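Peptidase S1 domain-containing protein, pasting as requested.
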Amino acid sequence: NEMNNDIALLKVSSVLNFTHAVKPLKLPSVDQKFEEGWISGWGIYMKPSLLSVTLQCEKMQIINNT
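Structure tokens follow.
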């Protein structure tokens, strides 16, 4: 399935120009705790395996795996 692990982290070779559509993301400190967070992606959104052409997002409860 080509949709497994559809996540990416990019390292750019030059400085990015920030705009209203391109902004830096501040990462939380190690000791910060959250109950909810946002997920996003294009992914499969319906059966039988329809791929979204629009970026989807959803607010989700964060579950502790420990």
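Note for the archive: Residues 1-11+29-66 form one domain.
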